[in-house]
Write a structure and sequence with these properties.
The chain is an all-alpha fold. The chain has a domain of 200 residues: MetI-like (MetI-like fold, Orthogonal Bundle), CATH 1.10.3720.10. The protein has 15 helices and no strands. Helix 4 packs across helix 14 and helix 5 crosses helix 8.
Length: 312
């Protein structure tokens, strides 16, 4: 192979290995677009470190001139004056989110494998029902879901923050479409070698559907991390509620402003202003895991999609 052909191969793909002047026209469009899209992220980060007098400036500043950690101190102080500390809510969120992610990946990949590679009655009808369920927003099924949780005896149980989030129709649809691309000959060869269904799923199916699994992981993480439904409707015990509910209760119930004004010795108005700073700090804490999760899995999705693709 000539040197010229080698150079052509090196710059082909989603992630070129070297810079080429032909990329300048794409960078000219992408860099300004990326800067505009980063403005909300910059605002969230700097807003959490703004002092009280900068929170309500008009026009608002994206970058604070005097960053401070007082908003986070107020958040900790507000938590210290409650029976349940904020660390408990944060631990509940981490635990429930990890459980939802792991179980969703297992259930979704197993169900998609059965729908794609198995033959049984009503197979097409079940898949059509899954597609129909994509049209329903979570609010539309809130009442039936509450009845199911009640009948299962999960009211005031930690599992009520996990089980309702395990059903993900969009994840099942996406993973099933990826498994359809895997040749039947590979599955049949594994069966001839004596592999069972779970061995085929673990050794053949899952390594070849990494883009879909990464997408499902991101979606399940976001739905579990940001969810307040279980804490609001299914739980009475504060010790098992999550961090998203805790922040919502601070901003909606006025507890942050009352506690902060009592701690600082200021008026209710100053406490309300400090409460806005606490909300900004909490928003950053809720946002950072979503950002880290997306950045980590987004790179894996892009690289896997660039080098995947199978044909029978």
């Amino acid at each position: 192979m000539s040197k010229r052909n080698k150079n052509k191969i090196r710059i082909i793909g989603m992630n070129p290995q070297r810079f080429d002047k032909g990329q300048l026209k794409f960078l000219g469009y992408l860099i300004p677009l990326a800067l505009v899209m980063m403005l909300p992220i910059v605002f969230i980060f700097f807003n959490a470190f703004k002092p009280t007098e900068e929170l309500f400036l008009y026009p608002p500043r994206f970058i604070t001139l005097r960053p401070t950690l007082q908003n986070f101190r107020n958040l900790v102080a507000t938590s210290a004056n409650k029976a349940i500390p904020a660390s408990r809510y944060l631990f509940n969120s981490l635990l429930s989110t990890l459980l939802v992610m792991a179980l969703t990946l297992l259930i979704t990949s197993s169900a998609a494998y059965v729908m794609s590679k198995k033959r049984y009655r009503l197979k097409n009808m079940l898949f059509e029902l899954n597609k129909i369920s994509l049209m329903f927003v979570p609010v539309a099924v809130a009442i039936p879901r509450y009845f199911i949780i009640t009948r299962l005896g999960l009211i005031d149980s930690f599992l009520s923050s996990v089980i309702p989030l395990l059903a993900m129709p969009v994840g099942l649809y996406l993973v099933k479409q990826f498994i359809d691309q895997i040749p039947e000959s590979m599955v049949e060869a594994a069966r001839i070698d004596g592999a069972g269904d779970y061995a085929i799923l673990r050794r053949i199916i899952m390594p070849n559907i990494t883009p879909a699994l990464a997408t499902v992981a991101v979606l399940s993480f976001q739905s579990a991390w940001n969810s307040t439904e279980a804490s609001v409707y299914y739980m009475h015990n504060e010790a098992i509620k999550n961090f998203a509910y805790y922040l919502t209760s601070l901003s909606a119930g006025g507890n942050a402003s009352d506690v902060t004004s009592a701690l600082t010795g200021g008026s209710a108005a100053s406490g309300a202003l400090a409460g806005m700073g606490i909300s900004a700090a909490g928003t950053l804490i809720m946002f950072v895991p979503n950002l880290v999760m997306f950045i980590f899995l987004q790179s894996r999705v892009m690289n896997t999609m660039a080098h995947s693709g199978m044909k029978s």
